[in-house]
Design a protein that fits this description.
Layout: E1 10-12, E2 23-25, E3 36-45, E4 58-65, E5 71-76, E6 91-94, H1 95-99, E7 106-113, E8 121-129, H2 130-134, E9 141-144, H3 148-153, E10 162-172, H4 176-181, E11 185-193, H5 217-229, E12 237-243, E13 245-247, E14 252-254, E15 257-258, E16 267-269, H6 270-284, E17 286-287, H7 294-304, E18 312-320, H8 327-337, E19 342-348, H9 355-361, E20 368-369, E21 372-373, E22 379-383, H10 394-405, H11 409-419
Parallel strand pairs: 11-12, 11-18, 18-19, 19-22
Antiparallel strand pairs: 1-2, 3-6, 3-10, 4-5, 4-7, 7-8, 9-10, 12-15, 12-16, 13-14, 13-17, 20-21
Helix pairs in contact: 5-6, 5-10, 7-8
């Protein structure tokens, strides 16, 4: 275990020259080099009812205590809808994130009732420690959920329910880099929205407008993500598709047409090749609709299903204006794909509100279809407008986008490897990596 304190520098916040507008306090703590990872599952019983027309939509928030007595969020479970007796999905968390390798450090867990507007209702809390959790590996441990306000106001108050630790195990943690060094390949596929809601590409108001002076939001998103992820793809050959367009000459509507117009080989050479094929498609196809995500998700999923030994991992980038016509089918495709070595990145461009895309992301509520929940969180959604630099600096905009878009891919890859108990291979020497199946 290795933990050290660091000084707490303060810096005056000056919004107006010469006028002090407050102070920003920075605190830091060195992370330990502990590589253990804890996997646990919890359930609750008889939680307080918070919803007027229903029960509650409970979720848990885990906090790691810091050396200065403050707490930092280190994990949030999914929301289980309309129940006072939820059973949360098992989840894994690095021990260094939970307690920074200090087994006796306090871990605080809050229980909330989820609300759509973000004003989640506090149900109660309890505390534990890594050491206490680890002792419960062979027995159920029950914690009382206490609400301090209710405890002060009500003399007969007992608790606001209980939370039970159903299972707890610890394994050695491998890193994303361990798998890449062992030869795991990332196979990158692109899917671009060619529906009419994007506007006429010949008009400056279109999200696809090919200006001679700057890249469109679609082109910037593709270039930003692709130029980073291509470094993990040894052959630099990327299948690239469009969806929602009428194709020449007969005007057939397609939801997964190859941008290079080659049905037998949809690969483009490098990200520049993808961009070139994208620009050429804009000149030849007719933007139409509707907007279907499911066909291209299922296309990539079929390729991912053929290789499950950890040697290949598939990443699908969907760039869209956010208008979706097959939400039910897309949810079903995501739930099915969640058991495969696959991740989906959705970048939303334009002014839409993107509620549907947020729902597919599954950060708050795990995606479900026909009573089945996604085995893993495999979708990362980001709205492009949040990363546009106000000064118009496209390079900075792309760097910001790429950083957040790719933030979840390493953990999603690791979560697949953990669920399949796949360990990284020894660093590859001269042995060739098998060619991936093309979607």
């Amino acid at each position: 275990m290795c933990t050290t304190s660091t000084p707490k520098p303060t810096s005056p916040n000056r919004g107006v020259p010469g006028k002090k507008c407050g102070t920003i306090l920075l605190t830091a703590e060195e992370l330990s080099n502990c590589r253990d990872i804890a996997t646990m599952q919890l359930c609750a019983n008889k939680l307080d009812k918070k919803d007027f027309f229903g029960k509650s939509d409970p979720f848990l928030v885990f906090y790691r205590s810091n050396e200065d007595g403050t707490f930092t969020i280190c994990h949030k479970t999914e929301v289980v809808k309309n129940t006072l007796n939820p059973v949360w999905q098992p989840f894994s968390i690095p021990v260094r994130a939970l307690c920074n390798g200090d087994y006796d450090r306090t871990v605080k867990i809050d229980v909330y009732d989820w609300d759509r507007d973000g004003s989640h209702d506090f149900i109660g809390e309890f505390t534990t420690s890594y050491r206490e959790l680890s002792k419960a590996q062979n027995q159920f441990t029950v914690y009382e959920v206490l609400n301090p306000r209710k405890k002060c106001k009500k003399k007969k108050y007992v608790n606001s329910g209980t939370v039970t630790l159903l299972s707890f195990s610890v394994d050695s943690e491998f890193t994303f880099v361990d798998y890449i060094k062992g030869g795991t390949q990332l196979n990158f596929t692109v899917a671009i929205d060619f529906t009419a809601s994007n506007g006429n590409p010949l008009q400056p108001t279109s999200l696809h407008y090919m200006s001679p002076y700057q890249l469109s939001a679609y082109a910037m998103a593709l270039k930003a993500v692709g130029e980073i992820i291509q470094d993990y793809d040894s052959d630099k050959l990327f299948p690239a598709y469009g969806f929602g367009a009428k194709l020449p000459p007969e005007g057939r509507i397609s939801h997964q047409f190859p941008l290079n117009n080659n049905d037998e080989d949809p690969n483009c050479v490098g990200i520049e090749g993808v961009l070139e094929s994208y620009f050429q498609s804009l000149r030849t196809v007719q933007l139409y609709g509707p907007t279907y995500f499911a066909p291209v998700i299922n296309q990539v999923a079929r390729a991912a299903a053929k290789i499950s030994d950890g040697s290949q991992y598939y990443v699908l980038l969907i760039i869209t204006d956010g208008v979706i016509s097959d939400m039910t089918q897309t949810k079903e495709a995501i739930v099915s794909a969640s058991s495969l070595p696959m991740s989906i990145i959705i970048v939303g461009v334009g002014p839409a509100m993107f509620e549907a895309m947020e729902e597919l992301d599954g950060d708050d509520v795990r995606v479900s279809s026909r009573g089945r929940y996604a085995e893993r969180d495999i979708v990362q959604f980001v709205p492009f407008r949040d990363y546009v630099d106000r000064s118009g600096n496209q390079v900075l905009s792309m760097a910001r986008l790429a950083k957040d878009v790719l933030a979840e891919i390493p953990e999603q890859l690791l979560s697949y490897m953990r669920t399949r108990d796949i360990q990284p291979r020894p660093p590859a020497n001269s042995s060739p990596t098998p060619a991936p199946e093309q979607p």
